[in-house]
Amino acid sequence: MENIVNYLINEKLLIATMESCTGGLLASCITDIPGASNVLKFSAVTYSSQYKIKMGVKEQTINKYTVYSKEVAEEMAYNIAIYSDSDIGVGITGQLSTNEDVKKSVNLCIYDKRDGKYYHVFKELKANKRYDNKLEVIDLFINLFNSTIILKKI
Q: pLDDT band at residue 46, thresholds of 50, 70 and 90?
């Protein structure tokens, strides 16, 4: 995470997050890095559909695709970037149930407002502990950010 925060600082970019299933863990990991206050200006935990909608996710999108969908993650990323006037928006939604009968998965989207591009990752999660799945989502974010936002500059 340190290389991401340093990249954002060096490039003078702002990032904002709208997290659901991770409960703010991504924002917490960012703020663990010195200098994060220069790049993270806003973060929202929108665990319920009601608050996703209040933050700009269309109710029709949730009803059509489900609250755990790629489309919802995309709207989360876009809306948090616009709301916070940030260069990068991150939307994370998914299901991390400990119930063996429920498929655990996450949709993560990074929106780059500078060029209007969206970067997505979907992953089925295997761990039986919610926190272990949350940590895997953080790793997914790091890998997606490094392979898209940072590499596209090179």
A: very high
